[in-house]
Here is the input.
Amino acid sequence: INLTNRCNNACDFCIRQNKVGIPGFSLWLEKEPEAGEVIAQLDAAGRGDVVFCGYGEPTLRLDVLKEVAAYVKSYGGKVRVNTNGLANREYGRDVVPELENLVDVMSISLNEASAEKYDAVCHSIYGPAAFDEMLDFARRCAGTRMDTVLSVVDVISPEDIAVCREIAEKMGARLRVREYSAE
Here is the structure.
């Protein structure tokens, strides 16, 4: 489910930097959907499990995300959120308790092994502090019933992937190494 085109990062490797979508599909939204619109589409599609991701950061539409996720949970569906982990910074509060009973899997883009490297690749509007903000969000998620996954793209060095694996393991999260695709 794509809720927005907006993002508070501008990651070098993100396909949104140079593509309009994936072959056969434009991912750019003409308008941000309201919860009722998304729910109607879910009903028309036969319901099911959902993943909040897309060209934008889904937590920038936190209220819509929570309403749709609650609907999915009401019929027994599973919910995954793919996020940059900056929601707490965005809202100036800990939003993890608001998501804990609505999200089954929280997949957080770790992207790099240090704040300096993260900032050089992710170009967050929050600057170098974004790395620690993201890690704090991840720790809070890992401390709940949510299955917490940190992810990196395989374009970083094997040494940095090893550091990222240690970061994930220390907080009780899993590390997922995603394959880079220019498509």
Notes: The chain has a mean pLDDT of 92. The first strand starts at residue 21 and ends at 22. Helices lie at 35-45, 62-74, 87-91, 96-99, 115-122, 129-142, 158-171.
